[in-house]
């Protein structure tokens, strides 16, 4: 009888120990946060609004145009709330300008292969979402560069468009946890070129991108 009571007491202790542990595991599974991954790869599509900058030249009439970018993204986790962010993007930038009364209005189409690299800072995840800020640089190599003067046909810019594009980039947004291994990213990025891209007028360019991405 004494042995039976001890066995019953021991089983009760085991059940009480295991039950809360299983309950915590269930709450974590159905909770609003998941453990971070060491490496996350994703796809992105980013419409942008781009414009040219001519320094202090007040006679230039400038107009922003709409372009787009797409490609791959990669986040390498450094800690739970920090990651090194990079990728491989095809970026199409478009802008118009008129250098003065003696010049016709010209629209420029510039396409680059770009590699962004920077630091992503993320908040703790709550209610299946986290907020992030991002700061870094982008380096680009020209794939093509064309111009259209008013209603004429497109003309290849050739050496009139410089080969390399370098820029400072800052942005932020929200990451939405869709599943354990699936996140959606929405955000804004301001990209400010600090190297001339066109020889005419020594123009630099900047753009504002609306970022949409899926991380797997």
General description of the model:
The chain has two domains: 1-31; 36-215, Porin (Beta Barrel). The chain has an eight-stranded antiparallel barrel with strand order 1-2-3-4-5-7-8-9. It is built from one helix and nine strands; from the N terminus they run H-E-E-E-E-E-E-E-E-E. A hairpin with a 2-residue loop joins strand 2 and strand 3 (82-98). It is mainly beta. The protein starts with a helix and ends with a strand. The longest helix has 28 residues, at 2-29. The model is unreliable at 14-31 (pLDDT under 50).
CATH architecture of the largest domain: Beta Barrel
Helix residue percentage: 10-25%
Order of helices and strands: HEEEEEEEEE
Number of domains: 2
Spell out the key features of this protein.
single chain, 216 residues, mainly beta, Porin, 2 domains, eight-stranded antiparallel β-barrel, 9 strands, 61% strand, elongated
In short:
This protein is 13% helix and 61% strand.
Give a topology summary.
Elements: H1 2-29, E1 39-53, E2 61-79, E3 82-98, E4 106-122, E5 129-149, E6 154-156, E7 164-179, E8 182-193, E9 204-215
Antiparallel strand pairs: 1-2, 1-9, 2-3, 3-4, 4-5, 5-6, 5-7, 7-8, 8-9
């Amino acid at each position: 009888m004494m042995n039976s009571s001890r066995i019953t007491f021991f089983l009760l202790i085991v059940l009480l120990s295991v039950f809360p542990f299983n309950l915590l595991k269930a709450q974590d599974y159905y909770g609003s946060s998941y453990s971070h991954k060491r490496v996350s790869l994703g796809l992105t599509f980013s419409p942008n609004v781009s414009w040219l900058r001519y320094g202090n030249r007040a006679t230039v009439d400038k107009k922003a145009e709409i372009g787009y970018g797409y490609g791959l993204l990669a986040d390498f986790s450094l800690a739970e709330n920090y990651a090194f962010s990079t990728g491989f993007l095809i970026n199409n930038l478009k802008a118009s300008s008129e250098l003065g009364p003696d010049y016709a209005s010209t629209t420029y189409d510039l396409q680059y292969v770009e590699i962004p690299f920077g630091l992503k800072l993320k908040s703790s995840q709550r209610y299946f979402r986290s907020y992030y800020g991002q700061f870094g640089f982008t380096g680009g190599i020209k794939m093509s560069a064309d111009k259209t003067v008013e209603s004429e046909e497109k003309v290849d810019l050739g050496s009139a468009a410089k080969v390399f594009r370098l820029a400072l980039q800052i942005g932020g947004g929200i990451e939405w946890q869709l599943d354990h291994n699936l996140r959606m990213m929405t955000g804004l990025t301001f990209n400010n070129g600090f190297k001339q891209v066109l020889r005419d007028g020594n123009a630099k360019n900047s753009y504002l991108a609306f970022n949409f991405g899926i991380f797997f």
